[in-house]
Amino acid sequence: MAITGMQVVSLPVSDQDRARDFYVDVLGLDLLRDAEMQPGMRWVQVAPRGGETTITLVTWFDTMPAGSYRGLVLETDDLDGDVERLRGHGVEFPDGVQDAPWGRYVTLADPDGNGLVVQATRARRPKD
Predict the structure, then answer these.
(1) Average pLDDT value for residue range 63-83
(2) Contact at 8 Å (CB) between 23 and 57?
(3) Around 64, how many Cα atoms within 13 Å sit in the side-chain half-sphere?
(4) Cβ atoms of residues 34 and 43 within 8 Å
(5) What strands, in cross-sheet order, belong to the sheet with 41-47?
(6) Any idea which architecture 8-60+68-121 has in CATH?
(7) pTM metric for this prediction
(8) Helix (H, G, I), strand (E, B) or coil at 39
(9) What is the pLDDT of residues 83-115, one digit of tens each?
(10) Which of 1, 38, 40, 59 has a C-alpha 20 to 30 A away from that of 82?
(11) Which among 77, 78, 61, 79 is positioned nearest to 9, based on CA atoms?
């Protein structure tokens, strides 16, 4: 196989405007695209600045109800600072900051209840 990366992760949401505002204004991701695909369907795509993988906020997959996604891990260079900033936006962290063998992290939910993790940046795997 010659797979070289991951491009897009689809995240199920009920309201694309509300989700876009959360991911851009609260989490600080960049809005890459917000465009009509066809009547009644929009492509809303966000990503961390400089990130290779993007997120599309989708409403059209019947098998992916809004709020059903778990385990999307985002990285930060300043976990403690981001936790305080996000708390200022009303974001809750039910378990507080956690320490694990793989690093420090917090869990939170987006407005639809999708489960997210914000983790302190870790060393990358070396590229072959």
Answers:
(1) 94
(2) yes
(3) 14
(4) yes
(5) 8-12, 54-58, 41-47, 30-38
(6) Roll (3.10)
(7) 0.89
(8) coil
(9) 999 999 999 999 999 999 989 999 999 999 999
(10) 59
(11) 61
